[in-house]
Amino acid sequence: MSRVFLTWAVTHSVKEVQNEDSVLLFVVAWTITEIIRYSFYTFSLLNHLPYLIKWARYTLFIVLYPMGVSGELLTIYAALPFVRQAGLYSISLPNKYNFSFDYYTFLILVMISYIPIFPQLYFHMLHQRRKVLSHTEEHKKSE
Amino acid sequence: MKHYEVEILDAKTRDKLCFLDKVEPNATIAEIKNLFTKSHPQWYPARQSLRLDPKGKSLKDEDVLQNLPVGTTATLYFRDLGAQISWVTVFLTEYAGPLLIYLLFYFRVPFIYGPKYDFISSKHSVVHLACICHSFHYIKRLLETIFVHRFSHGTMPLRNIFKNCTYYWGFAAWMAYYINHPLYTPPTYGDEQVKLALIIFLFCQLGNFSIHIALRNLRPAGSKTRKIPYPTKNPFTWLFLLVSCPNYTYEVGSWIGFAIMTQCLPVALFSLVGFIQMTIWAKGKHRSYLKEFRDYPPLRSPIVPFLL
């Protein structure tokens, strides 16, 4: 969900941010994450999951996830002045639908939403890591 | 007369929570719940779910002990439904909010639109009409809650009040903000549009009220009987010929009327979301009617004649 938003509604829509380093940051983070994640799914389906892939999926996120989030937030932040200037995706009163929407404010709210959401997801992954990797250890020991 | 013994176990842990001896065979589940509360006062009857099977359906309060498939020592499983709040409380709170919130915007209370507009009333007549209609709608709902509706369940989970109030109060504030805004644009087709919308709105308000009265009359006070609703002498109830839940049909109609009257996109969105929710409820109600009554009229659809 945040992938589509960052890609289409931010980076594609606001051409001026496309040269930012923050874009490189989240693209690299996402790319590595996805390569590992889909390998994990593929091997799982084939019932032949190398421990390395499982380890990578449940460990590398510790660095990749904050990296990705930083890239995303910095990109949105960089886009703000251009959104404000162009009035991008915004509609103001008066108009015959008696409706208004300020994309700039919306983006700020999106950034704020990272504050409650990121820790929840991060700790959930850490919890999963403890469960999944210790389970494998037990398996190995019992063999 | 042989007495029963009832043991109550926790449905998840199977712990023995309570043992009741010398229970009358004709005791109801409601009475058993009251006895259970004595030993566990934090679990008042409304938050008890008692069932014969840990994963089964809850027994009804009216069920009688000797009519259940149990031996003289009955084992019941208990699940805590969580803190409960009465339907009446929830309804009154969730409806009082929009009534008051809308008025705050209508009277242009300070800190909403800017000091230039504080307490200045709108110059558009439709804005005054909209306030009357919106207020009428919620006053009607409050009065119906107090005097008309007969609820089959006394309570619902406590968290629902936060969810429901956020929905009603949030949307009320959102709609009221635009309708009462100094830059509000009146409907494109002017008085004609407002007149038509008002007729639709009033028609549906009357319709909705008629259905509520008809449903109330199906059920004697204090009972939980369920009967098939049929059209009465009141023409507004003839919609029962075509739909199971005409109260929802009329409700959507009222909001469509209000949306046309105010020509305000947030009102249209509120109508749409309400329609989706009411359709889900209507389909559920329709399904339970079909399950419970063999002779349920086949022509009826849940909420929209012939379509939905």
From TrEMBL, chain A:
InterPro entries: Tyr_Pase-like_PTPLA (IPR007482). The chain crosses the membrane at residues 23-46, 58-83, 103-123. One of its GO terms (biological process) is fatty acid elongation. One of its GO terms (molecular function) is very-long-chain (3R)-3-hydroxyacyl-CoA dehydratase activity. Signal peptide: none annotated. Catalyzes the third of the four reactions of the long-chain fatty acids elongation cycle. This endoplasmic reticulum-bound enzymatic process, allows the addition of two carbons to the chain of long- and very long-chain fatty acids/VLCFAs per cycle. This enzyme catalyzes the dehydration of the 3-hydroxyacyl-CoA intermediate into trans-2,3-enoyl-CoA, within each cycle of fatty acid elongation. Thereby, it participates to the production of VLCFAs of different chain lengths that are involved in multiple biological processes as precursors of membrane lipids and lipid mediators. It catalyses: (3R)-hydroxyhexadecanoyl-CoA = (2E)-hexadecenoyl-CoA + H2O; a very-long-chain (3R)-3-hydroxyacyl-CoA = a very-long-chain (2E)-enoyl-CoA + H2O. Its EC number is 4.2.1.134. Belongs to the very long-chain fatty acids dehydratase HACD family. Pathway: Lipid metabolism; fatty acid biosynthesis. This is Very-long-chain (3R)-3-hydroxyacyl-CoA dehydratase. It comes from Chelydra serpentina (Snapping turtle). It comes from the Eukaryota. It is found in: Endoplasmic reticulum membrane; Membrane. Keywords: Endoplasmic reticulum, Fatty acid biosynthesis, Fatty acid metabolism, Lipid biosynthesis, Lipid metabolism, Lyase, Membrane, Transmembrane, Transmembrane helix. One of its GO terms (cellular component) is endoplasmic reticulum membrane. It is a multi-pass membrane protein.
Automatic annotation (TrEMBL), chain B:
Residues 5-80 form the TECR-like N-terminal domain. CDD domains: Ubl_TECR. It is an enzyme of class 1 (oxidoreductase). Pathway: Lipid metabolism; sphingolipid metabolism; Sphingolipid metabolism; Lipid metabolism; fatty acid biosynthesis. GO terms for biological process: very long-chain fatty acid biosynthetic process. It catalyses: octadecanoyl-CoA + NADP(+) = (2E)-octadecenoyl-CoA + NADPH + H(+); a very-long-chain 2,3-saturated fatty acyl-CoA + NADP(+) = a very-long-chain (2E)-enoyl-CoA + NADPH + H(+); (2E)-hexadecenoyl-CoA + NADPH + H(+) = hexadecanoyl-CoA + NADP(+); (2E,7Z,10Z,13Z,16Z)-docosapentaenoyl-CoA + NADPH + H(+) = (7Z,10Z,13Z,16Z)-docosatetraenoyl-CoA + NADP(+). Its main location: endoplasmic reticulum. SUPFAM superfamilies: Ubiquitin-like. Keywords: Acetylation, Endoplasmic reticulum, Fatty acid biosynthesis, Fatty acid metabolism, Lipid biosynthesis, Lipid metabolism, Membrane, NADP, Oxidoreductase, Phosphoprotein, Transmembrane, Transmembrane helix. It comes from the Eukaryota. The chain crosses the membrane at residues 85-107, 166-184, 196-215, 235-250, 256-281. It is a multi-pass membrane protein. Its EC number is 1.3.1.93. The keyword Cell division does not apply. GO terms for cellular component: endoplasmic reticulum membrane. It is found in: Endoplasmic reticulum membrane. One of its GO terms (molecular function) is very-long-chain enoyl-CoA reductase activity. Residues 155-308 form the 3-oxo-5-alpha-steroid 4-dehydrogenase C-terminal domain. Involved in both the production of very long-chain fatty acids for sphingolipid synthesis and the degradation of the sphingosine moiety in sphingolipids through the sphingosine 1-phosphate metabolic pathway. Catalyzes the last of the four reactions of the long-chain fatty acids elongation cycle. This endoplasmic reticulum-bound enzymatic process, allows the addition of 2 carbons to the chain of long- and very long-chain fatty acids/VLCFAs per cycle. Belongs to the steroid 5-alpha reductase family. This is Very-long-chain enoyl-CoA reductase. The lineage of its organism: Eukaryota, Metazoa, Chordata, Craniata, Vertebrata.
